């Protein structure tokens, strides 16, 4: 094998073609609603971590569990990157009619790109939070919230942070 690129070999690099069974695929006996996605800070230095919070409400008639997923998308990168990358997930049990606020940390290393070395780049990023991948078609409705944040400063090697 001479070509080690992942393009066309894994769903992360397929472009517009959706995987048959994406991460988080499945059915539930209840429904969930996401709201109040907050990214803090909305503009951060290149080596800083991002704090994320989101509210999950069980709007159905039964108790249920949801796998809350966070995906990151680079809006512009100097090298090829996945269309989005899973950066955090958590299985949460929520009784019927209740809500819970979840907090996550997206560390700088999760924004690193490979360009002969792991490096952090400034730019605009989109973070998605929901019970499925962004753009996933499902029989049961599920929503995915999104918010953008900006990374400022000069590009630098990851080990320089």
Automatic annotation (TrEMBL):
GO molecular function terms attached to this record: beta-glucosidase activity
Organism listed in the record: Spheniscus mendiculus
Fibronectin type III-like domain location: 66-133
Keywords per UniProt: Hydrolase
Pfam families, A to Z: Fn3-like
GO biological processes: carbohydrate metabolic process
Protein name: beta-glucosidase
Reaction(s) catalysed (UniProt annotation): Hydrolysis of terminal, non-reducing beta-D-glucosyl residues with release of beta-D-glucose
Enzyme Commission designation: 3.2.1.21
Protein family: Belongs to the glycosyl hydrolase 3 family.
Database matches in InterPro entries: Cellulose_deg_GH3, Fn3-like, Glyco_hydro_3_C_sf, Ig-like_fold
């Amino acid at each position: 094998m001479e070509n080690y690129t992942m393009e066309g070999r894994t769903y992360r690099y397929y472009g517009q073609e959706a995987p048959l069974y994406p991460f988080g695929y499945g059915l539930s006996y209840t429904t969930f609603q996401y709201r109040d996605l907050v990214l803090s800070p909305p503009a951060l230095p290149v080596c800083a971590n991002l704090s994320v919070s989101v509210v999950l409400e069980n709007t159905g008639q039964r108790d249920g569990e949801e796998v809350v997923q966070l995906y990151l998308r680079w809006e512009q990168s100097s090298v090829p990157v996945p269309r989005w990358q899973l950066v955090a997930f958590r299985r949460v049990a929520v009784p019927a009619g209740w809500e819970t606020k979840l907090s996550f940390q997206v560390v700088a290393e999760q924004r690193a790109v490979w360009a002969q070395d792991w490096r952090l780049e400034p730019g605009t990023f989109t973070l998605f939070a929901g019970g499925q991948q962004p753009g996933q078609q499902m029989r049961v409705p599920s929503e995915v919230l999104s918010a953008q944040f900006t990374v400022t400063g000069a590009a630098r090697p990851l080990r320089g942070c």
